[in-house]
Amino acid sequence: MTPIISVQGLTKTYGNGFEALKGVDLDIKEGEILALLGPNGAGKTTLISIICGIVNPSGGKVLVDGHDVVKDFRRTRALIGLVPQELTTDQFETVWNTVSFSRGVYGYKPDPALIERVLKELSLWSKKDNMIRELSGGMKRRVLIAKALSHEPRVLFLDEPTAGVDVNLRREMWQVVEKLRESGVTIILTTHYIEEAEEIADRVGVINGGELLLLEDKKTLMKKLGRKQLRLELAEPMTSLPESLAGYNLALSEDGSALLHEYHGDEAQGTVPSLLNRLAQENIHFKDLSTRQSTLEDIFVALVGEKA
Fold it and tell me: I want to staple 49 with a disulfide (CB 3.0 to 4.6 A). Which of 55, 77, 152, 265 is the partner?
């Protein structure tokens, strides 16, 4: 299947010599939710800005539905909706008017039925006659999404969509994103909230220093790079590990009250039973055990740390 967006050898060097992107290759599948993670200055916003036609690349190219974003700007821009991080709406305009105006910016004829549907899907219909300044922060973000959807784009970019909103509003926004995907819209979001990517993304990309360090299916990523830790609370504290346990990836807690064993999830059937049998043979007893799965945040920190 041809990707809806294809980024090929993309570079961007600003006038002061700063390399914001260093040969990024990225294919985005139609209908997926892709989360782009990375620290400030990693290149996320530059990448989005080039795809959306806001910034010109220094090298490489970007295709949207097979069309070059530089050579066929108008056609590709019409396929894309962009929701910026900043709340850049006219505070003294009504919700209805500002969303309708956005549709006209792209040269589309008025379509009140479409605007009504978009506002209802985003739970904004009851606020259609309210001025933007009267809305809560969460509602203002919904208006930005409505503006981006007013010309029926096939791709939607969300730049930090839940920045500065509380946990409840964040989860409401996740539901909105899922509904958009169900309607066939391809969604690319940048986020600082690792749990956001973990909750709603199909694939995860990690950017740092202008390079795409990793692009992987979320579930595959967790399986490949995620680690588990088995903690065994000892019946009697130990001062050191016996030599007979040297073959296992074991560590003793600082106070000597627990054994810590790290392993990949697919190793559990072999190493864990073997370890427990060995402990029984050595007459080492434990009173409790627990496991901890590494999170996407652990993986992200490890990847970014390696490139720091």
Answer: 55
